[in-house]
Design goal:
Blueprint (H helix, E strand, L loop, with lengths): L2 H17 L2 H4 L6 E6 L2 E10 L2 H6 L11 E15 L8 E6 L5 E8 L7 E14 L2 H5 L6 E3 L16
Parallel strand pairs: 2-3
Antiparallel strand pairs: 1-2, 1-7, 3-6, 4-5, 4-6
């Protein structure tokens, strides 16, 4: 086990610890996103962007984002989604998920002010933005599952009621 493995676990632990007992209790709240995959679990305190105006504003003009924080973009139905970084001041990872809350693609380390779109593909219903590089450090990858009440619970890969 190398230093990199230890660092991944430390970052993952920080994300989980900041979330507090919500992960252990399996709580499902609008202000928390839980992710799980073969490498473990992570949790982020999120702001919800579920209206057109909130999605358009996103994280623009922010000078920082706590390591345990993010923004969850929620669309009324699955669609083709792309994001750009115009007026965004911090690097971001964009985690694109389908209607079941399953990670389909990750746009790693999108750079501030870049106007080239980061495309998530078709059938995307939610997008989680977190600090750039954090998804790799934690080990989040395609196939991970999100637990959040914005996901249709009847279709959710990891429903709020599951342990």
């Amino acid at each position: 086990m190398g230093i990199g493995d230890s660092f991944k676990r430390l970052i993952g632990a920080v994300a989980l610890v900041v979330a507090g007992s919500a992960v252990a209790a399996g709580a499902c709240r609008d202000d928390m996103v839980h992710l799980r995959g073969p490498g473990g679990e992570a949790a982020f305190r999120v702001e919800l962007a579920d209206t057109g105006a909130e999605r358009a504003q996103g994280l623009m003009h922010r000078e920082s984002l706590a390591a345990s924080a993010g923004m969850l973009f929620v669309y009324p139905e699955p669609k083709s989604v792309g994001f750009w970084m115009k007026n965004t001041l911090i690097p971001l990872d964009m985690i694109f998920m389908d209607a079941t809350g399953t990670v389909q693609r990750i746009g790693h380390e999108a750079q501030p002010h870049d106007e080239r779109p980061v495309m998530g593909g078709d059938g995307i219903q939610t997008v989680l933005e977190i600090n750039g590089g954090l998804a790799r450090r934690i080990g989040i990858s395609e196939g991970w599952e999100m637990r959040h009440p914005a996901v249709d619970q009847a279709a959710a890969a990891w429903p709020c009621t599951a342990e």
